Amino acid sequence: MMPHTELKYSNDLTLDTEAIFTAIEWCINQKDPSAGVCKSRAYPASEYQHTHVYISVSLLNKPHRDGAFSQSLLEVLNSEIKSLLIQDCYFSLELNYVSDYYLTDYFKSEYSQIN
Predict the structure, then answer these.
(1) Residue 14 contacts residue 60 (beta carbons within 8 Å)
(2) Which domain holds residue 32?
(3) What's this model's pTM, rounded to 2 decimal places?
(4) What are phi and psi of 16, to 5 degrees?
(5) Would you say which domain of life the source belongs to (predicted)?
């Protein structure tokens, strides 16, 4: 399973979402080289109360991803992401583990023009 990241933020923030996504993927793969690519998406909000950013990182639950792994990953993600922020804001970062009943793969359509 590829990790997933969702970044939700008030649109008064100037964010380099591509740099944040790259940093998150790098951090995950430094801690767990088997993780692979991290599918990421950003959602700027035009309606909000208080300037903020909320980042959710989801991983598949695996035996080696225990409490120590999770705390270590959370710490490095926190540090790396905040180093890319240039404005004051409320900041939330969540690390999630998906259930055993989660399916993810790569679907390749026979009709796709993308190779």
Answers:
(1) no
(2) 4-98
(3) 0.88
(4) -95, 85
(5) Bacteria
